[in-house]
Amino acid sequence: MSHLPDDALVEVMQYLDVPDLLSCRLVCKRLAALALHRDAWRHRQLACSDRYLCVALRLAPCLDKAELQLPLRGRLMIATTTTCAVAELKLTTGCAKRGAMQAALLTRHQASLGRLKRLSLVFGDEDTSPCPWLLFWTVASTSGLESLVILGFPSRFDRISKKRKYLPDRPVSSPSLKIFRCDFHRKSASFVHFILAEHAETLRDVSIPTMTSPSDPVTASLLASIPNLSGLACPLLPGLDALAGRVKEGLCYAQLVVSSAMRPFAPAAADFLRRANDLWAFTLSIDSGDDVALELVEALVSSGGSEVREVGLQGSLCALGVLQQMIGKLTLLPSLRVLKLQGPPAGPRCVHGWLHCDAVKRLMYENRRVRLFAYDHLPRHCQDALCPDCMTGCRRTVLSQCSQLMNRVVDNVADCYNSASGKRRMIREEDMIDIYMAPF
Ligand SMILES: [Zn+2]
Ligand SMILES: [Zn+2]
């Protein structure tokens, strides 16, 4: 082994697990030094539950990702003084009040080490703490981030943040964010607008889901001024039609959240869809307001020349009849290749059940290139308690219509495109911003 060059040894060390890598430090001086080489650590991801996280923070020069559950107790000192620079930091806290100060310290410390590119902050579902304004001030003023994901943005504000002191007075040094995802509501609006304005030059994928639309047109105009926007998930916004121009210039994936409260903004959204002929993929997340959702699908198919390849209908709160009406309209999309479906609890319990829906069957017969993808990992057939469709026995006949259509069911949407011809022009799979399905 002494004849092997350092590069080769480090290459091998990349494949050792953390305990074995640390054991190399006890073998000889040369291996001890190589065991702490950046290349032996840069791809590693460690979480709070990992017993070697503390040792790594003490010894390792870098990590790809560190995942911490806040508030930290015994490990706070090492986490805020470590020289181990991480590229991705994911901080989860059940209560913003207790975890936010630590999150701000950790973010600031890692930013100072110069390698932090991706930051995720996850707050508890029912967190009613006041907004941790210091944390958001820190995040907004952190430079060099490429991805920022904030889930469960606390919706209560304390008195200080009412004065908007949670945003820096001066702009960030230079725009860097490419991916931005944040819950959007009245309390987070100023923060979201700050990020959209400051990072407009570099942003590519923006996801700001909400069930209650803001009523001012600022958000849509900020989105429209992002030159390289390629993926967008947002509610129906006033002024959304201004985004139509972006489609020509690269916006290829759009996801709209619909609720009945957003009815006043439906005309602008319909106008956007009528003019967005070059859109590659479109998803509708229906919370309520089935009629509004149907109107939007009609707008999407109205031009007839639409390039849309993928349509997703997330209708877990939608009436099955209306969902079928929407699917029926999709026969007018000549380029459609993938239909992604999520039905209400009363809807099909298996993919086979979907194939028995008249609208799905008709679409798949009229457009022979359409493949079907079911959200929620629905089984292809019922296993135990059979649904009425599985009980018919048609699944056992190899030549039945269902068996043939089943060949066009996919478990992974990316499989529908082969790299030579139908290259998927979409954002990378891991950046997908489907609101309900993204596991975090
Ligand atoms: Zn079934
Ligand atoms: Zn069948």
TrEMBL record:
Gene3D superfamilies: 1.20.1280.50. Residues 1-44 form the F-box domain. It holds the Pfam family F-box-like. This is Uncharacterized protein LOC127750171. The gene is LOC127750171.
